[in-house]
Amino acid sequence: MDGGRTAHSAFKLPLNLNFVETPLCNISKQSDMAKVLRDCKLIIWDECTMAHKTGLEALDRTLQDICGVKYRMGGITVLLSGDFRQILPVVPRGTRADEVKACLKSSVLWPRITVLSLKLNMRVHLYANENAAAFSKLLLQIGDGQLPEQDNKIVIPPEHCRLIFDFNIFLDTIYPDLDKPNIVVPSWLKKRAILTPKNDSALEINNELLKRMVPGETIYSSVDTVVEEEDAVNYPTEFLNTLNPPGLPSHELR
């Protein structure tokens, strides 16, 4: 969405939503952001189904406080868009029950939400592409659990995919000729992408692609230090460099 921002950035949501019972956004009533929110007629929260329910509840409390009213969301219309067939909120080391408990449908706000379902895929409808229509139908079947599975795996029909078993051939197929100068331009990059469910896989793929690019890669290293001097013995810099906590960049950026 052009000009859009993440919910954490726009609403100053706390980072510990998983552990706080009644969180609030870090927005004071006298701040410029509070004035912007008071003037809002509509707030659009896209992909809300991936957000932790306490994030929406924090926004509700904050808007009531900022606007000085006890109406839901401070009387501001909030449009939530998303698909529960996709990824639910990520709960570190949580069970399926924890993820379901964290999703919006488990929020005290959910009974107050009016649900409107979109029935027509406009992208498929406008382009009138039979292959795109068939693939869209396949995705809905996967999301609705209508396709047979074995060992938690679903076989995608061959007409919708191409199987490649060699890592290098796979990369060359998606990003060919990276070693040629002036090939990597925005118009070329935006036509291709590699999706992976794990950050480790994404890092491996990115590092390999960067090695192939012209000019060569540049490595920037973080500066890691301990807050308390007495901890320096137990946590040397070399150890800190090996840590890769979620939500923070790696020690080396390429």
UniProtKB/TrEMBL annotation:
Cofactor entry: Mg(2+)
Residue ranges of every copy of the DNA helicase Pif1-like DEAD-box helicase domain listed in the record: 1-152
Gene3D superfamilies: P-loop containing nucleotide triphosphate hydrolases
Example GO biological process: telomere maintenance
Reactions accelerated catalytically: ATP + H2O = ADP + phosphate + H(+)
Presence of the UniProt keyword Coiled coil in the record: no
UniProt keyword list: ATP-binding, DNA damage, DNA recombination, DNA repair, Helicase, Hydrolase, Nucleotide-binding
Enzyme type, top EC level: isomerase
Family: Belongs to the helicase family.
Annotated protein name in UniProt: ATP-dependent DNA helicase
